UniProtKB/TrEMBL annotation:
Gene3D superfamilies per UniProt: Electron Transport, Fmn-binding Protein, Chain A
Native species: Lachnoanaerobaculum saburreum
A GO MF term: FMN binding
Sequence similarity: Belongs to the flavoredoxin family.
Name of this chain's protein: Flavin reductase-like protein
Keyword Flavoprotein on entry: yes
Domain Flavin reductase like: 10-148
Matches recorded under SUPFAM superfamilies: FMN-binding split barrel
Statement: the UniProt record of this protein carries the keyword Flavoprotein: yes
InterPro entries, per database record: Flavin_Rdtase-like_dom, Flavoredoxin, Split_barrel_FMN-bd
Cofactor(s) the record lists: FMN
Keyword terms of this UniProt record: Flavoprotein
């Protein structure tokens, strides 16, 4: 039996990221699940925010933000950044999140994050409940402890987390690598 749901957001799992921002006077971190990659070259991403978010005005004014990917260690902090507002508290201080100076943008990155993606806003689409910030990636910074002995970045070691219909899920099991479904098996001679 199949069950019909009313049209709504059912595209899961999605990333859950901590978006840091700053406009010189204010700085904040907002948790975002409506985010993704939209172009490889030039590298472009989006985040969608409700205009009521404290971070919304900061990003609209500064036209910059950093997407900080989350892992199992950061999951609780990410959740807390998603239920409390920068209007009421300084999330950096209260949640003891360490700032890492970003390379290109003025907004600080999250030091504990395995991957920090610095972005500059190119366009804002006012879609409805959420406004979509379309942005160019201007710098990427990763935690060196995830580089393997061949100097390859190994994200499988970072215990990444996804958001799946209201639940945070740790990605501990690798099922295959890109293209594994069509890869020919090596035949022994
Ligand atoms: C898992 C999760 C995902 C979220 N995704 C979004 C999102 O994509 N867009 C959005 O506007 N708010 C999202 N939120 C809600 C904001 O993070 C939340 O309202 C936050 O308190 C806003 O902080 P601010 O007022 O400091 O900007 C999400 C919250 C959680 C917990």
């Amino acid at each position: 039996m199949r069950i019909d749901f009313k049209p709504g957001n059912m595209l899961y799992p999605v990333p859950v990221v901590m978006v840091s921002c700053g406009d010189g006077e204010r700085s904040d971190i907002v948790t975002v699940a409506w985010t993704g990659t939209i172009c490889t070259n030039p590298p472009m991403v989006y985040i969608s925010l409700r205009p009521s978010r404290y971070s919304y005005d900061i990003i609209k004014k500064s036209r910059e933000f950093v997407i900080n990917l989350t892992n199992e260690k950061l999951a609780k902090t990410a959740d807390e950044c998603g239920v409390k507002s920068g209007r009421d508290i300084d999330k950096w201080k209260v949640m003891k999140i360490e700032q890492l100076p970003s390379k290109v943008v003025a907004a600080p990155s999250v030091k504990e994050s395995p991957v920090c993606i610095e972005c500059k806003v190119e366009n804002i689409l006012e879609l409805g409940s959420h406004h979509m910030f379309i942005a160019k990636v201007v710098a990427v910074n990763v935690d060196g402890k995830y580089m393997d002995e061949k100097n390859k970045f190994d994200l499988t070691k970072a215990d990444m987390v996804v958001y799946n219909h209201g639940e945070y899920i740790g990605l501990s099991k690798v099922l295959g690598t890109f293209g594994y479904s069509v890869k020919k098996k090596k035949t022994r001679k």
